[in-house]
Every structure is written in structure tokens, then in C-alpha cells.
Hints:
- The protein is α/β, with parallel strands linked by helices.
- The chain contains eleven helices and twelve strands.
- The strands form four sheets. The protein has a six-stranded parallel beta sheet with strand order 2-1-3-4-5-10, with helices on both faces.
- Helix 5 (138-158) links the parallel strand 4 and strand 5 (162-167).
- The model has no long low-confidence stretch (mean pLDDT 95).
Amino acid sequence: MTTFWQDRRVVVTGGAGFLGRVVVQKLRTLGADVAVPRHADYDLTVPGVAEQLLADTTPTHVVHLAARVGGIGYNQAEPAPLYLQNLLMGTYMIEACRVAPSVQKTVLLGTVCSYPKFTPVPFHEEALWEGYPEETNAPYGIAKKAHLVHAQVNHQQYGQRFAYLIPTNLYGPGDKFHPSVSHVIPARIKRCVEAKERGEPTMDVWGTGRASREYLYVDDAAEAIVLAAELYEGVEPVNLGTNHEITIRETVEMIARMVGYGGALVWDPTKPDGQPRRRVDPSRAGELFGWHARMAFEDGLQNTIDWYLANREEAERDPA
């Protein structure tokens, strides 16, 4: 076990969130002193707050996970705050980390939504700039991509050290199941469970089901973040994924089977599919800091279903 973290202090923005809680747990297990700022105390969209946070905590490392996120419906309903709030949080944190004397390295989390709508599969990091993102994801994806540019030019001019990671769709225990922010896996688990309990003969599902996704278990993503914070020395973005692609239709059918819902799935092609395909090439992460995803999808899905059934009130809590 590495001793690297035993004399390090880490600020994890978004550390109380779905991914953040797992990252915080891993860092503390490795001996790090971890601070988890709360939005009520540090609103990172306000100028000067990021600098105050770092002055109060004097971290050696910052992991910036705080974000405003949601599924396709949320992206369609709230594109302006999704763009602006994510852009501001990352911009202010990157710049505060650049000038803070204690900060040695900053880890930034990008998004697979930044890739062009029609990216050749598997997605290679070099393709990030070869087109415009899928329209429903574009405001969020472009805001996140701007953080990469900011960190790269800061490295070029000031020597700022950072890691920029691009995970595929995250899932796992602790995910958000409230309809306003849930993504496909938690949304479908919740809906299948409810349909089963109510004895509904059919269940409506958005889209055609033909679009594909690649899902990354939350613990695998957290391990990559911790490894990159310690080991990655570079300025290029790094994909995090499993190199396993599955259609939305197959995903929903698997969830229905595992939950025990036996009704008919009724697909609504008038609703958007989102990006047609998603699967990334994760080889750069293996080459540069020795990371490989380990959780098999069906096992991770079962863990997520089990957690939801045991924690429904917490899972469905309105984030607002």
C-alpha cells in the first residue's frame, strides 16, 4: 500500500456527492487528511470563494468534483445554469489552485458529454475537438471542456500541475434516483421497481433504445481519481471506461429482469435518444497510471439495485 497520502491534505469539492463520497473514503483509508466543503459554506460560483476555501484548508491536492448534473430531461430544461454554474465553479477553482501556495496538484473531472455527437467508437482523447457535442448535452459538455483548456494554458504559462479525467456514465450504490437529476440506470431502476409494485402491465421508456452507453462503476472511477492524483504527470485528458458498450434497450431489459418486472416495455421514439453511441478507449489510463476498471456490469448493477431497495428514502431525496 502506498504511503504517499499519509502526509497530504486534500480538498474534495463535491465530496458529499455520489462519486465524491467514495473518493473521500478511499483517500482517508490511505491516510490523507480530507476536507469536504459544503455548498452552504462555500458557493464556488461566487468570485473569491474558491480562494477563501483554499486559504481556510491549505491543501496539497484539490480534487474538483462539484458539478450541477442531470439526465436528458434536465439538460433540456436547464441548459443555461448547467453551462454557467459548471463553467464558473471549475474556472474559479482552477485559478484559485494556481495561485494558492500550498496546492501541488489539481484533479479535474471532465465528462464524456464533451465528445462530438458523431465520434468514431471507441472514443480516443484526440477526438475531443473534432466536432460539436450532442445537442442536449452540449452546454454542460462545453463548460467542462473549457476547464481543460484553462488548465493546459495555466500549465504552459505558469507550470500548474493537474490531471484531467473523462469518465463514462457513472453508476453504483449511492447514485441519485430523484427524477430531476437521475441518469438512465437509477431512473430505470426506480421506475421498474415502482411498476412491479403497482402491477403495471406496461412501462413507457424514452427514445428508441438503440443508442448505446458505457457504464463505469463508481468505485472504479474513484480509484482512478486517486491514482491519477498521485501518479499522473501530463497535460492531456485521460478517458476512464470499461471498453464495454451496451444499448439503452439492453440496459433497461436487464434492469427489468433483475428487478423482477415482467411487463412490456413501450418505447417512445418521439423522445430524444441523446448521443447515438458511447464507448471510450481507456488504454491511456492503464499506460500512464496503471488503472483498469474491475467491476463487471451485471455485478455492479445488482449492487446498485440492492442499495436502492435498502435505502429508498435517501436515494429518492430531492437534491434541491
